[in-house]
Structure formats: C-alpha cells, structure tokens
Design brief:
Structural class: alpha+beta
Helix content: 25-40%
Shape: globular
Largest sheet: 8 strands, antiparallel, barrel
Oligomer: single chain
Strand content: 25-35%
Low-confidence stretches: none
Number of strands: 9
Length: about 250
C-alpha cells in the first residue's frame, strides 16, 4: 500500500491530450518537462501520474466512467506542504497560463478539473494481500479508485463517522483493496453541486477493474438493501471519479 499517502493536503487534476495522434509526444513532454516544472513550484512536495482504466461497470457504475468517445483521462496527484494549499494550486494555474501565453505549454493539453483537499481519515486492510506490494519508485499504489461525492455540511461528523466505521470497513473486506483515505474540500467558495468529499481507494491487484466491479455489485445488491449507506449523501457533478492505473505500469 502507499507509503506516501495519506498526505495532509493533496490536489487532483484531470486532463486530456486533445489530439490522440500526439499522445506519445504529449506524455514525453509531460514527464520530461512539465512534471519537473510542477515539482519546482513552491509548496509542491511531489507529483504522481495515473491513467484512466476505463472499464465498463454497467449501469450501477456509470458515474465512474468517462463519457463515451471522450479521450483518455490522465490523472495528476499533487502532494502539498503549505499553509494555504489552495493558493499553491492557484499559483500553479497562473504559471501554466503564463507559459501557455509564451508558447511553452503543450498545445494539446486540456485540464478539465482541478480540486484541492484536506485529509480527514484513513483505514488499512487487515486481509492478507493478494500479491506483494509493487514497490513502485514513487511509493504509490498500482491502482486507485477516486470517488468524488457530496454530503450535507450540517452533518459532516455523522457522515465522516459512517464512512470511517461502516463504509470503509465494508469495502476493505474486498480482496485486493489495501487502503482507504478520505478528504474534504479546501475550495473556499464551493458551488452547491460541487463535490465536497473525496475518497481514494488503493489496490494492489492485477485487475483493479474486476475489484471495483465487485464493489459496485456489492453496493447495489448487498450494502444498500441492508441500509449500510449514509442518509446525508447528496448528488454532485464531477467528471473525475474513476479507476486509474499508475503511469509506470501503462
């Protein structure tokens, strides 16, 4: 499981290469040029890359998938150490706009979502791992499931307790899942339908999509009928939820 997560503060960015004929060029530029630039930004401790697995989870898991026909979703995770993480990422965006104006930003890069988060809680699996940890060079897990959600702020304590003592416990009984983390938004002015909760689930398994399919099925057929879901959840808009595999494994 991850050695570097949980982190006190993280940012999550979802992006695309808008010209699929230039993906190799895009990724070479991102790895060799852009990641070092991001790491040099004040407050950014490290940067990690993932790519959307894009499986078919059926109707129950539709919100985990990218829109049909859309380009692959690349995921960038930022680990932040700063008094004001939101300001750190605002400065990152300002720097990117400046480089774009100077013609130094890849012209097929499209960033569709950037959010900043504060750590709430973490739980680890007590099951024996299906396979040894991959020990990737950056210490990150092989695959992650990101779920962006919403909750009634007036019931934050109850909702967090449900996630920590009921939901995370249930999910960690799924073979292949190694760790769960929960974050809350640091957006100072979130929109009403904007996600204010982020859950990150880590996997060390050859087929993360199959594990997530089991989670989706168990949620629908077991946990929801048993009433093991929070009544304080609310629907939100987000195009970032999904299953992502570590870039070094793609």
């Amino acid at each position: 499981m991850s050695e570097l997560f949980p982190a006190k503060n993280i940012a999550v960015e979802v992006l695309h290469c808008t010209d699929q004929s230039r993906t190799k060029e895009f990724n070479r530029w991102y790895d060799k040029v852009h990641v070092p630039e991001l790491k040099s930004s004040s407050g950014i401790v490290d940067v990690y890359r993932y790519l959307d697995v894009q499986p078919d989870f059926g109707e129950a898991g539709a919100r985990l998938m990218a829109a049909p026909g859309s380009p692959p979703r690349y995921l960038t995770l930022y680990r932040i150490n700063a008094a004001d993480p939101w300001e750190v990422m605002r400065q990152v965006r300002d720097d990117e706009e400046r480089r774009a104006a100077e013609g130094k930003l890849f012209d097929c890069l499209e960033s569709t979502e950037l959010t900043v988060w504060d750590f709430v809680a973490c739980r680890h699996s007590v099951l024996s791992p299906i396979k040894p940890d991959s020990r990737l060079p950056d210490g990150m897990p092989e695959a992650i499931l990101l779920l962006f959600g919403g909750m009634d702020p007036a019931h934050k304590t109850e909702h967090d307790d449900w996630w920590l003592y009921t939901h995370a416990h249930d999910l960690l009984e799924t073979p292949g899942m190694r760790q769960c983390q929960r974050y809350c938004t640091l957006n100072p002015q979130p929109a009403v339908d904007e996600p204010n909760v982020l859950n990150i689930y880590e996997f060390e398994v050859d087929d993360p999509a199959a594990v997530v399919q089991r989670i989706v099925d168990d949620d629908l057929n077991v946990r929801r009928p048993q009433g093991r879901f929070s009544q304080f959840s609310k629907s939100v808009r987000s195009g970032a939820s999904g299953v992502y595999r570590h870039w070094d494994l793609m």
